[in-house]
Structure formats: structure tokens, C-alpha cells
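Notes from the 1:1 (GR / supervisor)

We went over the backlog. Supervisor wanted to see one worked example end to end before approving the batch request, so GR pasted a single chain during the call. The sequence is below; no edits were made to it. Supervisor asked that the structure be written out right there so they could see what the output format looks like.
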Amino acid sequence: MTDDVRNIVLGVIAAGISAALGWIARTYLWRRRLRRKQAFFGLPGNSECLLVVNRDAGGDGSVHRHDVFALLELSALIKDCAAHAQILSHDVAQQGIGERTEFCVGGPVSNRRMAAHLHSLLPGVRINTDPEPGPDRGAFQIGSERYRVEKGVGEYVLLARLTAGQNGRPVFLFCGQQAITNQAATRYLARNHERLARKHGDTTFCLLLKVVNSQAYGPDVVELVADVTRAAQAPVPAPRTSHRAGT
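Structure output shown during the call:
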């Protein structure tokens, strides 16, 4: 074997080893990212989860188109985790918390299950559901802070990851003041789940997001207002009552 042939053979072998090592490294990193993603969403491979959809509060019982887009955003995340989703309407979804990962979309007016989750898991959140027009209609009350709707200009949405018990699967809530904010929250989760997983791990969190100028930018421009986990989970104190002694 001449030196030239030997150098060519050694070069081919070295290239093959480098390619194999690169493939192994990429595969390891991909699998590690997948495991982290599955752990954050509570979606191991071939598991099942629940998509709870609301109804258009002002329509004929159909699903608002922005909520359909929200479901599509979530479906892509679920598929990436090699899991499977079952879509149920809010009024037929009857299962406990933690049995399966759940993604619940919509406000308490159009989604009964969302109303139940807020009452049970986020007692510090109050949402004005008054059907009559007024400045506080649809406003969020979180602790001592109030967040009003400015339709098309500034609208708020809660993005929460909640658990019940140590081994239970998480419940993700997307509770917005308008349907477009639900889509904005799912898109925010899809874009930032790695950062959220690094910061929060598998713990509970509740974030208040603001959708800016949705009439021009749609669901794409979203600001993180605050982490309101502590205030949202704090029970609202019962009103004081005074008792006057009889004379």
C-alpha cells in the first residue's frame, strides 16, 4: 500500500469516526432535550393528555377561531413529546386533577372546567364575569391588583402550570380576557417552554401576560407582566362581620 492510498484510507476512517461521534452527540442532546420537555409537560412517550376546549361565549356554541389556533399550537407541542391528545368540551370533561396532563383553554364564562380550576387551585384570582358593559367587565383581580381589558390595545391572560399532589400530572391553564389572548398564551408557552422549564422545573407557577396591540400584531407581541403565583394561590380572606352585643 502506497503512502497516498494509506492517507486516503486513514482520512476516510477519520471522517467516518467523526461523523459517528457527531451523530451520537446530536442524538444524545436531542434525547436529553426531549426528556426535559416531556418532564415539563408531564407527557412521557405514548402517554395521553386532555385538551379541554371552551365554547364561544357570544356565538352559537361553536369554538372561537382563535381558540382553534390555540389548540393547534398545543397539538404541535404534544406531538413533539410523542404523546396523544383527546379533545373534550368543557361541559363533558369529568376527571380528577393529575390523572392525565390537561391543557384547559378559555375564561370561566365559556369554560366551566376553567372556573372550577380557578376556584380550587388559584383562589386568589377573581375575574369579573358581569354580562353588563362596564369598565371592570372581564377585569382580573389578583391580590390587590386589578387588570382591566383594553380591547385591541392591552389585554391580559393567565398562563399557569399547576399540580395536585407530588406524583400528579400537571394542568396547564390559558385563561384570557379575549379569545386572541388564549392563543397568545399557548404561543408564548411553545416559544419559551425551555426557559420556563429551567426556571420553574416541575413546580407550580402562574404568570400574568399582556398581549400588546392585538388589533395590529395579533397574538405575537406578548409581555410578561409578573409572576403572580403567590398572590394567585393565596386564599381571599373572608369578609369581616361585626356582632353587636344585645342590650
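Supervisor's comment: Residues 14 and 20 are 10 Å apart (CA to CA).
Batch request approved.
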